[in-house]
Amino acid sequence: MVFASRAVADDLERVLRALGTPERADGEKRYLKSDLDFLGVSVWGIRKVMKAFAEQHRDLPHDDVVALIEALWGKPVFERRMMAAMLLEEYVAVLDPSDLELIERLIRESKTWALVDVLSGDVVGEIILRNPKVAARLDAWAKDDDFWVRRSALLAQLLPLKHGASFRRFASYADAMLDEKEFFIRKAIGWVLRETAKRRPDEVYEWLAPRAHRTSGVTIREAVKYLDDVRKDALMSAYKERTAAS
Predict the structure, then answer these.
(1) What is the DSSP secondary structure assignment for residue 1, as one 8-state letter?
(2) 130 within a domain of the structure (yes/no)
(3) Which of 85-107 are b and which e, b meaning 16 or more Cβ less than 10 Å from the residue's Cβ?
(4) Number of neighbouring beta carbons within 10 Å of residue 235
(5) Quick check: 134 and 128 in contact, CB under 8 A?
(6) By residue range, what is the domain housing residue 88?
(7) Which CATH number characterizes residue 67's domain?
(8) 98-110 pLDDT, tens per residue?
(9) 246: pLDDT strictly greater than 90
(10) Rounded average pLDDT over 48-61
(11) What's the pLDDT at 3?
């Protein structure tokens, strides 16, 4: 039986529409400053519909997953695209490094953190975790002109770092972007440092200490959240005085 991806995508949209409200749609569109259309469904509502679909299609093969993603993404509706990102996360086990090309395109077309962060932190991060040798593909992302792609290169390090990957690759990306003014880059660097510090505080402190004077307030306030008070105070003092921490 042929998997009718467009029909399935349209059916999923109909389910989502029944859950949405005009008020939420207007609010979400303003909040995300997006050109996409909105149905007004909460993230939890989208995930509930996605989970119900996945339960009924547990063994969906790779090509059908990709076809459904393309069908959902093809309409400029936020909830359809969020559903696509969540389904990639749900079916990440059937994805392989060749799918990074597709995901990169989706990241470029996302234009909002709400989609980018799922695609990069959850999907690309899991692909890299399963296939460590392809992590070098993100070196080009880290130098890309599109700051959403650069942000993705950073956030894709979250899962690998959590599972013991070398700090070196993230550190090289972050060092090159540390002087950027873009809020979403500054926030991403701080986010990865914050989460890494939960398990690897020594590495985070040693990397930040000589760079405190270059670090933005957005970055350093995130980065120090899980460090001990002595290190936190040293870094914040160095940041305020625009010097390196000792």
Answers:
(1) -
(2) no
(3) bbbbbbbbebbeeebbebbbebb
(4) 22
(5) yes
(6) 1-94
(7) 1.25.10.90
(8) 999 999 999 999 9
(9) no
(10) 95
(11) 65
Residue 35 lies in a domain: yes
- Report the domain count for the chain: 1
- Rg of the chain on CA atoms, in Å: 20
- Residue 174 has a pLDDT of 98
Beta bridge partners of 77: 37
Q: Work out the average pLDDT over 230-243.
A: 93
Identity of the residue numbered 216 = S
- In this structure, is residue 213 part of a structural domain? no
In a domain, 167, yes or no: no
**97: DSSP letter:** G
**Tokens encoding 174:** 């972050």
Give the tokens for residue 172.
């090289």
Residue 1 above 50 pLDDT?
no
Tally of residues, the chain: 246
Nearest to 152 by CA among 125, 182, 180: 125
How far from 27 is each of 37, 112, 184, CA to CA, in Å?
Answer: 12, 15, 21
Structure tokens at 239: 């940041």
Whole-angstrom distance, CA of residue 87 vs CA of residue 90:
5
